[in-house]
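Aim 2, interim progress: modelling of the BES-bound target.
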Amino acid sequence: MDFEIINGSVETLKTECIVVALSADGILYPSAAAVDKASNGYLTELVNSGDISGKAGEQLLLFKVPGIQARRVLLVGLGKSDERKDRHYRKLVKGITATLKKSGITSVVFALDGCASYRDDIYRETRQLVEWVSADFYQYDETKSKKADPVKLESVQILLTEEDTELGEGALLDGVAIANGVDTARELGNLPGNICTPTYLAERAEALGEEFDELTVKILGDEEMAELGMNSLLAVGKGSAQPSRLIVMEYNGGEAGEKPHVLVGKGITFDTGGISLKPGAGMDEMKFDMCGAASVLGTMEAVAEMQLPLNVVGIIAAAENMPGSQATKPGDIVTTMSGQTVEILNTDAEGRLVLCDALTYAGRYNPETVVDIATLTGACIIALGHHATGILSNDEDLAGALLDAGDFAADRGWPLPLWDEFQEQLDSNFADIANIGGRPAGTITAACFLSRFTKEYRWAHLDIAGVAWNSGGKEKGATGRCVPMLSQYLLDLAEQVEVEDHHHAHEE
Ligand code: BES
Ligand code: MN
Ligand code: ZN
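Predicted structure of the complex, ligand included:
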């Protein structure tokens, strides 16, 4: 699918379908008004006759509208002015892409005149359109014997005024990069556990390293990790025939020697719970327990594609949590890479066990910030449902930056407190820390566990248990979430760098 920003007059656009809009009170926005004028009031007549009123989500697909070159006009309702929130805009795009799919349309022009979103921000509105159209055409067929029909839609053009074109083109480039990252994250998430193993994730990272010059990838196997003392990470993979992997991706887009921003992803390629075995119902969904890792891979891809002027390190802690005969048992105690000992009271609380060693490893980079991303706790679904990523941090500014980034990228998070009061739930009689803190505040105590390993740097934890995939039914599948939030977070940091460079240039 090709995206392009175009200018010009609506009447002369040669396309299979032009999308124009009206508001709830029947007011035609400029592009719709232009179609109306060229067709001698065709659209006004439809409004007057009550065929469309402009309610949010309303659509009318029109053929051969007189006076214009486009084959079809898709007239869409944007509703009232307070119906332009992200959720409305997302729904609008879903509706439009459904129509495009149904009619097998191969080329479309969006002429929404910057009115579809409540924010007066052409960059944001354009980027969201690119990301969402792209996401709606994602189809999984990797493990089906009958491949999906190729996507018919080839050309997506977005009509902007000449003065908005530069902004729009920036949005398009960023949007395509983020959309590709989301695609990658969804595909990895959707692949089954017997294909998407720790070794497979490592191969995918290496392939990404081949693709981009600025990206160097290094893989640590069981032996190398043992040498580093990553016994906690290794304890998780012990019950599995699949070897564990620590995947390290270094993106060097910033100045040499500039402190990197590190992303750490939980990559449990299947979580049976281990000896603390999970119940059988719905256990297949634990193939999604590597979605944190997938979002790191997807974000690294987006960052490399956008060529951000930053140093970013992506680390993935990959293991399969199985109850084999060598498996870790409840009560076993391991010494982590940090030297702290952990009593593994529940082998199903394995995410924190792989992450703690990866977080210690991250410290070697003397990082500016570290963000870990994990499908860590069922409790997060109870706390925040399926809409918000849980954000926990030892640094208010960092938490704020992620919150803002998620808001801007329509991939939102929400903070939970990381107070010291919760820490004592992790007390153990036999080790420095227990790996579980009981039922109360399960998301917070999991983050408390991680906080024991992140004291040396600014750190935030994203619990994506509720947002990383959709369960059951037709919608079942990975969402690619936190790629937009993380990409935005890094875009914002890159912008700061650019502003600083600009200042320096002026000072000199
Ligand atoms: N991967 C799960 C968390 C999870 C469960 C995410 C369901 C999404 C849906 C994690 O490894 C886990 O099993 N966590 C336990 C922790 C508990 C044993 C302290 C949980 O949430 O029950
Ligand atoms: Mn688990
Ligand atoms: Zn898990």
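The radius of gyration is 25 Å. DSSP finds 14 helices and 19 strands in the chain.
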